[in-house]
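Q: Joint fold for the lines below.
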Amino acid sequence: MKSADLCPRFETGMELLSKRWNGFIIFRLLEGSQRFSELESSLPISGRLLSERLKELEAAGITTRTVYPDTPVRIEYELTEKGRALRPVITSIKEWAEKWVNSEELDSMNQ
Amino acid sequence: MKSADLCPRFETGMELLSKRWNGFIIFRLLEGSQRFSELESSLPISGRLLSERLKELEAAGITTRTVYPDTPVRIEYELTEKGRALRPVITSIKEWAEKWVNSEELDSMNQ
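A: Joint structure:
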């Protein structure tokens, strides 16, 4: 196996972060717990895809889903300790991007 | 546009890192410049895919490609200043993964 000398833990971490929208969902939840509808309105993805990603993040031990028996029922998502431990990762990506992503790149993204 | 309040620079940074194998290529190049064949033998991907990723990373200003007129010709890839500035990102992912990715997750990846 050619990947034998790659750190398999790093590989698992990269897999998680490299799944599209996971970084943004974690970014949002670092601000505090959120209802599904709050997450949905802050991200440019469908409710279905968001729901899928949240299930995967829950399965990976990154987020929890709590149902509060209010009327109507309130469902909140928040980061676990493992999820909150991603703060330095998200912060370092943010700092790098603020310093190094130039306006040309932003323009080409908006096309 | 629903994503209006997402930081567009963070979005561009995440796009770059979330493209599969980019993290690993940068991880490798943080150790120093590498020939194409060295990168190829350290990653579990085809030469064609590696070449594609390296072209994209070069276009994004993350890597450079230098041709040395030896016999046979020697081509080396290395990180630019913008690329080397990703060290804290890669390091924080590595540290998070070492602490938080558990053996069950590693087992499920190997299946």
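Q: Anything notable?
A: The first helix of chain A runs from residue 8 to 18. Chain A has one domain: 9-110.
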